[in-house]
Amino acid sequence: xxxxxxxxxxxxxxxxxxxxxxxxxxxxxxxxxxxxxxxxxxxxxxxxxxxxxxxxxxxxxxxxxxxxxxxxxxxxxxxxxxxxxxxxxxxxxxxxxxxxxxxxxxxxxxxxxxxxxxxxxxxxxxxxxxxxxxxxxxxxxxxxxxxxxxxxxxxxxxxxxxxxxxxxxxxxxxxxxxxxxxxxxxxxxxxxxxxxxxxxxxxxxxxxxxxxxxxxxxxxxxxxxxxxxxxxxxxxxxxxxxxxxxxxxxxxxxxxxxxxxxxxxxxxxxxxxxxxxxxxxxxxxxxxxxxxxxxxxxxxxxxxxxxxxxxxxxxxxxxxxxxxxxxxxxxxxxxxxxxxxxxxxxxxxxxxxxxxxxxxxxxxxxxxxxxxxxxxxxxxxxxxxxxxxxxxxxxxxxxxxxxxxxxxxxxxxxxxxxxxxxxxxxxxxxxxxxxxxxxxxxxxxxxxxxxxxxxxxxxxxxxxxxxxxxxx
Length: 472
Hints:
CATH architecture of the largest domain: Roll
Shape: elongated
Distance between the termini: 33 Å
Oligomer: single chain
Largest sheet: 9 strands, antiparallel
Low-confidence stretches: 188-193, 341-350
CATH class of the largest domain: Mainly Beta
CATH superfamily of the largest domain: ibrinogen binding protein from staphylococcus aureus domain
Number of helices: 9
CATH topology of the largest domain: ibrinogen binding protein from staphylococcus aureus fold
Number of domains: 3
Order of helices and strands: HEEEEHEEEEEHHHEEHHEEHEEHEEEE
Strand content: 15-25%
Radius of gyration: 32 Å
Number of strands: 19
């Protein structure tokens, strides 16, 4: 990144990150860290990369799969940083400084964006290095970057071209968005380690196919709508055989299906006998009726498949654990959407993920899933008796169950709205102000036979309008 671009990005970050609380720090790749932040208004993802020519810092909308065991440097940052107080460009160079606070006091995270030598250095309040992402032992007078040493800025290497003013293209709403698109779109296409993105591409390709299929089926269905008119035409021809002769191309008859009867012109095949013309319309009627039933069935099945795909797409875009991604991959392989097994993810390496659990204000257990296997388990095994089931209406999201069991404690509105808010928060509408959520009794939630994971039928329900709630 050029110095002027770094300055533009940091100016925006100052407004959004100052005072932000750090909720998670992930290191999905050896030289990439992602900070999950809460600034009091929004949840943000700050990406920091020291990958040579791809080294950069910016906010990102992309989600990344994370290793089961956090690497050394990300564990250190989790232990040391709980809040970002400020962010700035220092030494008039390509160095970004994050002034932070943690359990052990104040510290600074310095990000040197200097090509192949890009690095992350954590220093204490006295400027002494606590640790470094890429430890460097100095040789022949070169700078060392090791724990316990006093931090020193690298030699400046900024050209005049890097200081020229830059103008943001109208295509991008912010400099952060510009950098995110500039680097990550191409990187995702080439980065074989980004397994989550591979799954998203496979799902999105299928979604496009399914949507095209739905359009084609609906077109066929529309064309089949007049099958009843063909039966009536056949009946009218049989009732008026004496008025029809071979060689006629059409005949005008009175349509006794209308009250009062009105004239109707029926097209004829001049090569057929009158009886054969009537049979031709009866065949069209039979074909249309069968075709419409077939189209109805195909349309229902295809829309259900689209619902399932959109559910998987939401789960991949939402914050998920590595085990969730693996389970989604298994699900996609079963239906043939993921044929090329990624060498890092072809075998399931983690224990099955477990549904999330919370407690309502009155003490009722609330359980919700973050992938289709968990949703199936919740709606077919955990949901029983007097339990209540929640799901965002007309949107992909988690199945949520509030366990009532044989409890004599009264379920109050606060409990219902709490569970409904969780269903809203773990849905595609999580960023909305208010979300309509379905609430159903256990007896009204059923899973049809041969139905894909995560899909159920809800026979009867009421709706609640609630603000989304996430308990990350």
